[in-house]
Specification:
Layout: H1 3-13, H2 16-58, E1 96-104, E2 111-120, E3 125-129, H3 136-143, E4 151-156, H4 178-183, E5 185-188, E6 197-198, H5 199-204, H6 212-221, H7 225-231, E7 240-241, H8 250-264, E8 268-272, H9 280-293, E9 298-302, H10 306-311, E10 314-319, E11 322-327, H11 329-332
Parallel strand pairs: 3-9, 3-10, 5-8, 8-9
Antiparallel strand pairs: 1-2, 1-4, 6-7, 10-11
Bound molecules: adenosine-5'-diphosphate and magnesium ion (MG).
């Protein structure tokens, strides 16, 4: 009620022009203030991001991992990679030796792999079978050292990865760098994630066209040439792959991942066979390529189809993380 006399007083004393100016001024100021608070909210959000990124950078490295020697971080957190040799090669295939392997996903969680002992001969095809939850995928993860085994060891061609703690000074040992160890395994997971970039980059981790001839001849040998030409509507290796391979089907992602493995010449190919989600056309290509072009290499397949199991040399039957049976398909299959 007291504001009206003030306004009347203002109107009688102040000219209409200055009143308009005053109102415009108030309007501008309030918009600016509003914008400031919006910006403040955005800034706070960005700070949270920075905080999380910082947290990520300060995480300790996984056991045995190392950074490129050029990376600069606080010395007590990171250490540079020593130059180490890779897995020694002896022919196309690799011998895999699993000894007393015990694995669990956390100290308070149940064992998912219990006392596994297994030697896979070079060039052998091994099928892993078992119910859902029996530990098939866990065994693959263990091979790739996604989770360091709590007990026991895994070696390829006689060498083990160095899993000394990241902060510890690496002792001179005959073990090889974890990264080098992983390079000897070509992993084709059930749902491989590709990254954003060209098809070429997803295959050979470089966008230099210098290797195109090698890539194309590899794609030709595994019957993927026609597919690669069609998928990008003529762009070929320059086809853009979206984030996580979003523009490809699950089957196509596996095909790309398989071609990548073959190009890497890994002596050990490990694959989790696709289940029903895969399209029939890709499935046919996958099976054929895997059969034809892994000759001589050691292959481990988590098999879901009976036809695959039958083509393997030996079958490992897992039951609740334990080896239930190991033998030829005739012996293991009822
Ligand atoms: N990342 C994980 N964290 C905790 N437990 C897991 C994880 N992955 C799998 N498991 C458990 O390990 C057991 C074996 O799973 P998995 O190896 O995926 O079996 P399979 O591939 O034979 O179906 C299951 O009981 C599952 O719940
Ligand atoms: Mg699985």
């Amino acid at each position: 009620t007291s504001i009206f006399p003030v306004i009347t007083c203002l109107i009688t004393r102040v000219s209409t022009g200055s009143l308009a100016t005053a109102f415009t001024f108030i309007l501008v100021v309030s918009t600016t203030i509003q914008q400031f608070f919006e910006w403040l909210a955005n800034f706070e959000e960005a700070l949270t991001g920075v905080e999380r990124f910082d947290h990520y950078l300060r995480r300790p490295l996984e056991a045995g991992a190392s950074l490129p020697s050029g990376a600069q971080f606080a010395k007590h957190v990171r250490r540079a990679a020593p130059h180490r040799a890779g897995v020694p090669l002896n022919g196309d295939g690799a011998e895999v030796r699993i000894e007393n392997l015990w694995l669990r996903y956390g100290p308070s969680l149940p064992w998912v792999l219990q006392d596994l002992n297994l030697v896979i001969k070079p060039g052998e095809r091994l099928a892993i079978v078992g119910r859902t939850g029996s530990g098939k995928s866990s065994l693959i993860q263990a091979l790739y050292l996604m989770y360091p085994p709590e007990k026991g060891s895994i070696s390829i061609n006689g060498v083990k990865p160095d899993l000394s703690a990241a902060e510890a000074k690496r002792v001179a040992s005959e073990n090889i760098d974890l990264e080098e160890f992983r390079k000897s395994i070509g992993l084709i997971p059930q749902d491989p994630t590709l990254f954003r970039g060209t098809l070429r980059e997803n295959l050979v981790a470089t966008n230099e066209p210098s290797q195109d001839e090698i890539i194309w001849s590899m794609l030709r040998t595994i019957n993927l040439e026609t597919w690669a030409k069609e998928v990008g509507k003529g762009l070929g290796l320059d086809t853009e792959i979206e984030e996580r391979g979003g523009n490809l089907s699950a089957g196509e992602r596996q095909l790309v991942c398989m071609a990548r493995c073959f190009l890497s010449h890994a002596p050990l190919i490990v694959t989790d066979e696709a289940t029903s989600s895969i399209d029939p056309a890709s499935e046919e290509l996958l099976i054929k390529a895997l059969e034809d072009h892994t000759r001589g290499r050691t292959v481990i397949i988590v098999a879901h189809r009976l036809s695959t199991v039958k083509t393997c040399d030996r079958v490992l039957w897992l039951d609740q993380g334990r080896l239930r049976m190991l033998g030829t398909p005739e012996e293991v299959l009822p």
